[in-house]
Amino acid sequence: MPQLLFLRSVPSRRESPLDFCRTFALRRVLGLPKPPCQERKTRYLENLRHASLAVRRVSLADKLHNARSLLAQWRQKGDTIWTEFTRGKEGTLWFYRSLVQVYRETGSDFMTDELDRVVLELCQDDNQ
After folding, report:
1. Per-residue CA distances from 6 to 67, 78, 102 (Å)
2. CB neighbour class for 70 (10 Å; exposed up to 12, middle 13-18, buried from 19)
3. Domains of the chain by residue range
4. Per-residue pLDDT tens for 36-67?
């Protein structure tokens, strides 16, 4: 079945950003069960390490937008926002710090620097 190719564990360097997004959306369409949160996050990070530059840029833009939105919410509501996340503050900040690490390992730019700055601000009261 051709569409199942998108479920492979390591993406092709030539895959498009759309293909990378389909990897995660296709599971829902096919009615496959959602893996546990930690497994999904770890798989996303590993796939990102092997993804094309175009895929990493789209991912970085998306995660930067999400982190900025999270920072704006945090400034308004404080630490109460973390209750909205399955993995809470610790797990969410772990994922964002891991993203920054992957983006730095695979080619850093001004957006990576900005994501790092936003994540550091979110972590300012965190002793992790």
Report:
1. 27, 39, 21
2. buried
3. 2-122
4. 989 989 999 999 999 999 899 999 999 999 99
